[in-house]
Amino acid sequence: MDVQAYLNRINFHGRLAPNIETLRPLQRSHLLTVPFENLSIHAHEPIRLEEEALFEKIVRRRRGGFCYELNGLFAALLRNLKFDVSMLSASTINSEGQFGAEFDHMTLLVQLEERWLVDVGFGDSFMEPLLLDDRAAQVRAGRTYRLQTDKEDRLILERLEEDRRWSPQYRFRLVAHTMDEYQEMCRYHQTSPKSMFTQRRICSRATPDGRVTLSQMRLIITRNGERHERELAGEKEYAQALQEHFGLVMQR
After folding, report:
1. Which of the 8 DSSP states describes residue 1?
2. What is the β-pairing status of strands 115-118 and 105-111?
3. Could you tell me the strand order of the sheet in which 84-92 lies?
4. Residue 252 above 70 pLDDT?
5. Which residues of 147-172 are buried (b: 16+ CB within 10 A; e: fewer)?
6. What structural domains does the chain harbor?
């Protein structure tokens, strides 16, 4: 891996010692620069869960991706920087409040003096690593999270919403997996009409004061808690928004 090219891609210029002081800004820099997006699926571009292919797409072509791509490549970067990192299988919560299948999501465990939950592939999520063994509330970039244990010793990531309700995000076990084990669910999310990723285009990125998202033809910009939305006129304006807000140009 060309580590420097990756660091340039995420605009990271800090120290590279394998510690939490490096890990925090690495995750934050990644979320601020690399969008969560599923545009390959809608452009009928096969997603290959191989390090070389992911590096070409995300670093060389300056694209984004979804969880398997973003967390998979970020895990490879961390290993190159001498971090102890494991890929974990997670089940996300659906609109009915039910957890989905195993390998529905990839999240990361980084073992330092303490264990940390790391994720650059879950869209609008925690901006800096969470202490894995702390059950108290943890505040990241103004939002509050906690990790709870269920009756089967799975960990559940929860987020505190504005109505003071704890909202489950995903659940997982502390079992390390290889990239090959995510292949089946990656194919499902690329092809199944039941997958949220085949139903609508999404491109979303954190900003220093909020978030910018393209959801189908709707541009949503949140700054300091204020949300602004507008409908785009057509594909030309959509392509302009992709380039302006994400630096992203889709190949024809």
Report:
1. -
2. antiparallel
3. 130-131, 115-118, 105-111, 84-92, 166-177, 155-160, 143-149, 138-140
4. no
5. beeeeeebbbbbbeeeeeeeebbbbb
6. 3-194 (3.30.2140.20)
Say what the pLDDT of residue 248 is: 87
Angle at 29 between CA 24 and CA 31, to 5 degrees: 100
* Selection from 192, 212, 213 nearest residue 201 by Cα: 213
- Mean pLDDT (the chain, rounded): 94
State the distance between the two ends of the chain, measured CA to CA, in whole angstroms. Answer: 27
pTM for the structure as a whole: 0.95
Inter-residue long-range contacts of 53-59, CB under 8 Å, 24+ positions, other chains counted = 55/1, 55/2, 55/6, 58/9, 58/34, 59/2, 59/5, 59/6, 59/9
Helices 20-33 and 67-80, packing angle to 10 deg: 140
pLDDT per residue as tens digits for the range 14-63 = 999 999 999 999 999 999 999 999 999 999 999 999 999 999 999 999 99
pLDDT in tens, 142-191: 899 999 999 888 999 999 998 999 999 999 999 999 999 999 999 999 99
Q: Please give the full DSSP string across 34-95, using - where no structure is assigned.
A: S-EE-HHHHTTPPP---HHHHHIIIIIS---B-HHHHHHHHHHHHHHTT-EEEEEEEEEB-T
Q: What H or E segment, with its residue span, contains residue 22?
A: helix 20-33
User: Whole-angstrom Cα distance, residue 182 to residue 88?
Assistant: 10
- DSSP letter for each residue of 139-198: EETTEEEEEEE-TTS-EEEEEE-TTS-EEEEEEEEEEEE-GGGGHHHHHHHHH-TTSHHH
